[in-house]
Amino acid sequence: MQILDGKLVSKAIKDQIAVQVAELKAQGKKIPHLAAILVGNDGASETYVASKVKSCAEIGYNSTLLRFDSQISEKHLLDNINMLNENPDIDGILVQLPLPKHINEELVINTIDPSKDVDGFHPMNVGKMVSGLPTFIPATPYGIMLMLEHYNIDTKGKHAVVIGRSHIVGTPMSILLSRNSNPGNCTVTLTHSHTKNLKELCLQADIVVAAIGKPEFVTADMVKEGAIVIDVGINRIPDASKKSGFRLVGDVKFDEVSPRSSYITPVPGGVGPMTIAALLKNTYHAAIGQKGNQN
Ligand code: NAD
């Protein structure tokens, strides 16, 4: 069993981007600038946005964090997005999800200028991704593709079972894995909450991607010997021994699944850091006006 080390791979990607940023600086060119919007005080969202902003600083990007109270009106939020759309210094815009219930997430995503939509959630970018055209690919599935590529994992002809069909993870993951590309060329089964024979399907999988949001949902009896296991889940479970009162676990029961797997991502330290590396890559492409992500 080999651990797919997201910290290590994301560091390699970030180091590479830092060199590219230094080159832009040396040539007197514009430095990539990411704007992040955070609404409310959700603990997990705060952590994710903080690490995105910190990563920008580490590699030499400029970043702006706009924070709003959870009571912000939809109009005020949209006005701010439009301001960022019109600001030529801003290359990438991300709105940390989820948003408070009174705000229409779809409207917010549709308001972001597609050329600055570094999360790749705008329908125009989703359409391009489905068509195999160069575009911004949603950061989590893009990060997973970069991880598979880094470890030179041969996915061709493999059966991938993706658990979860969200727009940000499961659905784009299924599209990317089924593409005629490397990594890719998998036969993909996309499963969800209405799938009847999930265990049976998982047992046929050469690659399992778990993106469900249920702690330790995937157990050893669901995984074939030698499978590649990608755990997207980030779940907080109570842990009195921690100062924070919780610890993070994935959607996979790591202790029992890892001995059966050929490769597995840990939580934390697997897909999470790769998501940030992918976001930074998308932001670089936005800044130089080139969308090259066609994995
Ligand atoms: P979501 O809640 O939007 O989607 C969950 C999906 O799981 C749904 O499509 C649902 O149909 C499916 N599902 C629920 N119960 C199921 C069951 N019993 N059997 C099969 N499918 C079932 O979640 P999401 O936004 O895709 O996130 C999933 C997990 O990944 C969460 O833990 C989230 O925190 C984590 N996440 C991690 C990263 C990262 O960077 N590592 C990024 C995004 C999300």
UniProtKB/TrEMBL annotation:
CDD domains: NAD_bind_m-THF_DH_Cyclohyd
Domain Tetrahydrofolate dehydrogenase/cyclohydrolase catalytic: 4-119
Residue ranges occupied by any Tetrahydrofolate dehydrogenase/cyclohydrolase NAD(P)-binding domain in the UniProt entry: 138-287
Alphabetical UniProt keywords: Amino-acid biosynthesis, Histidine biosynthesis, Hydrolase, Methionine biosynthesis, Multifunctional enzyme, NADP, One-carbon metabolism, Oxidoreductase, Purine biosynthesis
Catalysed reaction equations from the record: (6R)-5,10-methylene-5,6,7,8-tetrahydrofolate + NADP(+) = (6R)-5,10-methenyltetrahydrofolate + NADPH; (6R)-5,10-methenyltetrahydrofolate + H2O = (6R)-10-formyltetrahydrofolate + H(+)
Residue positions binding NADP(+): G164, R165, S166, I234
Pathway participation: One-carbon metabolism; tetrahydrofolate interconversion
A Pfam family: THF_DHG_CYH_C
MF annotations from Gene Ontology: methenyltetrahydrofolate cyclohydrolase activity; methylenetetrahydrofolate dehydrogenase (NADP+) activity
Keyword Oxidoreductase part of the UniProt annotation: yes
Superkingdom of the source species: Bacteria
SUPFAM superfamilies: Aminoacid dehydrogenase-like, N-terminal domain (SSF53223), NAD(P)-binding Rossmann-fold domains (SSF51735)
HAMAP family: THF_DHG_CYH (MF_01576)
Known function: Catalyzes the oxidation of 5,10-methylenetetrahydrofolate to 5,10-methenyltetrahydrofolate and then the hydrolysis of 5,10-methenyltetrahydrofolate to 10-formyltetrahydrofolate.
Family to which the UniProt record says this protein belongs: Belongs to the tetrahydrofolate dehydrogenase/cyclohydrolase family.
Subunit structure: Homodimer.
Official protein name in the record: Bifunctional protein FolD
Species in which this protein is naturally found: Chitinophaga cymbidii
